[in-house]
Design goal:
Layout: E1 2-8, E2 21-23, H1 24-30, E3 38-43, H2 53-63, E4 67-69, H3 72-79, E5 85-89, H4 92-97, E6 103-109, H5 119-128, E7 133-141, E8 144-151, H6 159-175, E9 188-193, H7 205-217, E10 220-225, E11 238-241, H8 250-260, E12 264-266, H9 269-275, H10 278-287, E13 295-298, H11 303-313, E14 317-320, E15 330-333, H12 336-347, E16 353-357, E17 363-370, E18 373-381, E19 402-405, H13 412-425, E20 429-437, E21 440-447, H14 463-480
Parallel strand pairs: 1-2, 1-3, 3-4, 9-10, 9-11, 11-12
Antiparallel strand pairs: 5-8, 6-7, 7-8, 13-16, 14-15, 14-16, 17-18, 17-20, 18-19, 20-21
Helix pairs in contact: 7-14
Length: 483
Amino acid sequence: MLSTLYIVDDTLSLKDLPANTLSFEAYLRDYPKKNEGRIRIINLCDTQRYLSQGYYCSLLAEARRHEVLPSVRMINTLRDSEEQVFWLAGEKSVLRKLSDQEQHQILLCMGQTQQPVFKKIATTIFQRYPAPLLSVALTRNGDNIRIQLKYVGLTELSDAQRQFFWQTLADYDRSRWRKHGSGRKYRWEMAILVNPEESSPPSNKSAVTRFAKAGAKLGINVQALSAQELLHVNQYDALFLRETTAINHHTYRLASEAEKAGVVVIDDTDSILRCCNKVFLHDAFAYQKVPSLKTHFVYRTDHETLSKLENDLSFPMVLKLPEGSFSKGVFKVESREQLVNKLNELFEVSALVLAQQFLYTEFDWRIGVLNGRALYACRYYMARNHWQIYNHNSKRFFGGGFDTLPTFETPRVVLDAALKGAAVVGKGLYGVDIKVHENRAYVIEVNDNPNIDHGVEDNYLGEELYMQIMSEFLRRLEQRGAG
């Protein structure tokens, strides 16, 4: 269980403040306590001065392993004038509100603002500069917005602003223990990260709903949240990423923050790092003797390199960007001219490109693996008149058909290859893509964020698929303990 404490300067009267508000002196004197459980500190002391009570409050909280907002690093960042100014582009709703060169002031309370038009930009600022109270000056310059931040103390707030701030804190605190309409209390809280704007999400809405129902049966309260809504990942016990992951992306950042806070995470950051980069995967496949197609790492287009690729792989061959998902960043070339042109194009994006043997099959296998065990098996057929299961240039025939099978009807050679490929990455939830030719299986890649859609991957197991995945979360939560 996570308890929240608000810490204020000793000079501030505690009269009319929430019951869980302490002076800095009390926090210094009375904590840490034996068997105190997980504690979150909202540091409301003045942090503008180096070595002030506010500075030491966050420093002590970090030493005591209390989750604290703001962190010492953020206090130092906000004190550095150069770090307080940045620019945003493309916020059309905000641009319409601002006249050119006119400065507009807003107050951010835990990332919330009283002006709805600035809600999205407030969330963006808070994700970048997580601090309880910030004064923000917005200035339009053409299609860009200049953002200047300033720390605000409790004593600087008007009565109306202070009332809004405490109400925001109360709402934030209550959200941690939200109940369903039945009034049932849950032992654990889980956030499922989704992106409503994503065109091809890892799970459709019906699947996310079934994850939530399965979690409820196991005592896990599940909330589906976007990155803009998931402001405080450390208030949850578990995080399940159902948005397509990438390394230079908020999915990786949120997973990293969650892990640091002791939250159980799928996908974990190691899995994201390893799966999102095909260079790592194929290098690991080679060293650990995972059956895979012949692959070369390419970093130049000299005659020797091109000749070696032609001799070892022949045409057609496949070129892949190291990072990509849903068959994006994958190209087939059928001549040396196409090879050179495409390599030069891809070298503008990445220092390394993968060149791989081309093997056409009627379908690709996808084996879902969780904690080293095969969960489900699907055959994804190639998109119509295309060599991949997805055709990103066709809206009408974007994907091919599919079959969902029980794992016990899946060829042993496919299951063995899938488990060996997944073991290279870790013990998370993976989708292992496999081609079979002449009774030999070849691992194409391991996906850390596999598709689990209602009506596709769950066609054989049904609700049991969701129960098994939620049961693995439960096992890890119980292994971790209440913290």
